[in-house]
Amino acid sequence: MAAALVAAWLQFAPGAAAAQTTAAQSLKDLFEAAWARQPESIALQARRDAVQAQRRAAEAWTPEPPALEASHKTDRLTRNDGARELEVGVAVPLWLPGERRHTSALADAEAAALDSRAEAARLRLAASVREAWWHWQRAGVEAEIARAQLDSARRLAADVARRAKAGELARADQHQADGAVAAAEAAVAQAEAGTTVALQQLKSLAGGTWAPVATASAVAEPEPPAAAEPPPHPALAELRDRATVAERAAALASTQSRANPELTLATTRDRGASGERYGQTVTLAVRIPFGAGPRHDARVASARADAAEAQAQLALDRARLESEREAATARVQAARSQLAAAERRATLARETRGFFEKSFRLGETDLPTRLRIDAEATEAERQAARGRIELAAAISAWRQALGLLPQ
């Protein structure tokens, strides 16, 4: 009975890498719902717009927009001889040598870093989603097995009560059977509470309106393809892009050794006193700031420190992820072996329980032995069901270590 209920909850073929049917509320559905609520997802499009604006700014002819300059001079408040001067001009900032090229390269690097940062955030969320999902599946299996054990205990208690009334069994046997029912009821209550807690964890990720189907089959994710080289890991891509951004920021800071020069073109219309004709002149001026000095050195040193830090972190994470991939592969192999052993034990326990059920009905086996055999069979079925869940969870952890999102 428990085996049938567990099969209804969990349908998983060990080692199957082919496409499998996905439940209406699957792990992928949960992940997509959770990602839609994340701050990174909500702000992603606005950040992309900002990066595109930065690219357009790097392609402009000037580092900053031109400025309009206007001034008016008069002696009305002093001598009042009628002197007047009106000057109108335009100040245009100029790129420093190499600044425009480095600014464009930095904008490209930040655009790539934005996408890799979003993918890394999705992968970090996937780890939390996978953990909560398989915790819920484990709790669901425990609840199904507990309910199946309760049904079996009630049937046995009813049989014992009938036989005790007929005088075939003692009243103490009936008490033992009723006690087994009470224990099964307590186990069901505990398992259902665990399922509720696990479900609330899922809802905290996906939102309160997300409601998974309680009878959905827990379909394992497809196994990663056997490839000589693992796919690029989003966490490493994020660090590489971050290092690239820091390196290009350092190169840009090196070129920005001073403020941008300015080219000014102005025209002036003036007269010296009342009655004189207005004259007009044209002014062409260049403003070249001095070097920035220590402030410039500080910016360059800070950008280079960021690049060195990102490169060092990249080396550490590469080694860590390699270890995690090897550990995940070993965990999958161990889970397969444990599942095979648990299924063999469950098969033997079911057959043994059938033998003792028959002998109990014939009066050849006492009630304590029957209860012990039932408990052993239930525990064997629980281990087999959990073994299937653990194998599916191990495959999810393997995909997580490889940087693959839920499917």
Describe the structure.
By secondary structure, the chain is of the alpha+beta class. Helix content is 66%, strand content 9%. The protein has a four-stranded antiparallel beta sheet, with no helix packed on it. Strand 3 (262-271) and strand 4 form a beta hairpin. 29% of the residues are buried. Residues 1-24 have low confidence and may be disordered.
Write the layout of secondary structure elements.
Layout lengths: L1 H8 L17 H10 L2 H20 L8 E8 L9 E10 L5 H67 L5 H36 L27 H22 L6 E10 L7 E9 L6 H68 L5 H36 L5
Antiparallel strand pairs: 1-2, 2-3, 3-4
Helix pairs in contact: 1-4, 2-4, 3-4, 4-5, 4-6, 4-8, 6-7, 7-8
Shape: elongated
- The low-confidence parts are 1-24
Rg from Cα? 38 Å
Helix and strand pattern: HHHEEHHHEEHH
Helix content: 55-70%
Distance between the termini: 31 Å
- Spatial arrangement of strands, main beta sheet: 1-2-3-4
- Note the total helix count: 8
What composes the largest sheet? 4 strands, antiparallel
Indicate the mean pLDDT.
Answer: 84
Instruction: Please count the beta strands (DSSP E, at least 2 residues each).
Output: 4
> What structural class do you assign from the helix and strand content?
alpha+beta
Q: What is the beta-strand fraction?
A: 5-15%
